[in-house]
Every structure is written in C-alpha cells, then in structure tokens.
Amino acid sequence: MYTVKLEKFEGPLDLLLDLIEKDKMDISDVSLSAITDEFLTYLVHFQEKSPSYLADFLVIAAKMILIKSKTLLPSFAVTEDEDREITELKERLADYQRIREGARLIGVLERKHMSAYHKHSELRHVRVFLFPVGVTPETLHGHFFSLWQAGMQKQELEERKLEYIVSFEERMQDIRSRLEQSVRLGFSALTDAGSKVNVIMSFLAILELVKQRFIEVEQDALFGEIDIVKT
C-alpha cells in the first residue's frame, strides 16, 4: 500500500524528483520503475482541474509505465523513438534536479540576507604587479625612450658581391666546346676546385653527357683522376 501526501507540485518532474530523493536513489531506469506505482497513485487522487496541467502528468505517466514494462519484462522491446524519449526524460530530470538544488542554495543565502552572489574563484593565489622600490613614471619613460632610440639606429649590413653561378645547360655546353678542341680532358681541368657549386654542376653535366653517349669516362684508380674522352 502506498501513501502519498497530496500537495501541489510545480509539475511532473517536481513530483518525480521528490519520490526519487525520498528513497535516496539515483536517476535511472530502475529508480524510475520503482516509483511508477507511487506516481500513478498521486494521479488517482489528482484534484487539479487545469487540462494542460493534467496533460503534463499524463504524458510522464505513459513514459513511466513504458520504463517499468521495459525493466520487468526483459523480452519487452521498445522502439528507437521510445528509447530516445526515455533518455530525454532522465536528462530533463537531472537538469531539473540541478536547478532545484541551485534554487535551494539561493534561498539559504537570502535568509542570511546575502543579496550579492558570485562564482567562487578556483585561483588560490592572485598574482599582482607591484612597481619595484624607486621606480617612478619618469624613470619608466626614460627607459622606454632609450629603447626606442636604440631601435631607431640604422644597422650597417655587410656588403657582399653576388657570385655568378653557371647553369646546368651552360656547363654542358662549355664541356662540349672544350672537348671539340681536345678529345681527352681531365675532370680537374674542367672544374674550379675553389667552387663547390662549380664542381657539382660539372659532375652532373658529365653524367648527362655520358647518358647521351657524347663522352666516355675512365678512372685508373679509386679516387684517382677522371678522364673524359669524346666518343
């Protein structure tokens, strides 16, 4: 037998939350199923005449019966829409619980005549900037002016001549021309040892000319001189 105190609730969620908190339960399918009979008993003794107020309770009652059927009958299947409605009911109830708890805390503050509310800071230590002893606006102005003057000074850059770099095609053409005059040449004679770029360009050009069968290369010893012979 269920005993329900007939009092005016703000709505069905208010009644549900009262029944759950009375039994000290969490919001879940099991807890909602457990209080279904008490919720329906309240509706039996319902004295509210407003159709819209009654309709809100009847909608929730239908969902409560669905939840209890799902909990008691493992074979009872619900549709996706029904399952979504059950989830939404639990989420709405959880939101309402947080709102009601917040309202209760505000009521406590009002009874203490505390008319201002603020969020408690999570910062234990607040950092503030304090001028060092002896520092004045005048000294700060002087330091900033000195920095500004230093920044305005022109910096003399080192002058360097741009080195002309022979292109890959020019290096190939130069080797062709020189081999027209001399059938055999050494690699060292074709390159400028003082320029790494020239050496690399020359080597790549020779490889391309070997590929084109314009020249052949010979080397008698490891790391020895490379002889270039026109074919």
From TrEMBL:
Database matches in InterPro entries: ScpA (IPR003768), ScpA-like_C (IPR023093)
Pfam families named in the record: SMC_ScpA
Highest rank taxon of the organism: Bacteria
Identification of the protein by name: Segregation and condensation protein A
Organism: Candidatus Azambacteria bacterium RBG_16_47_10
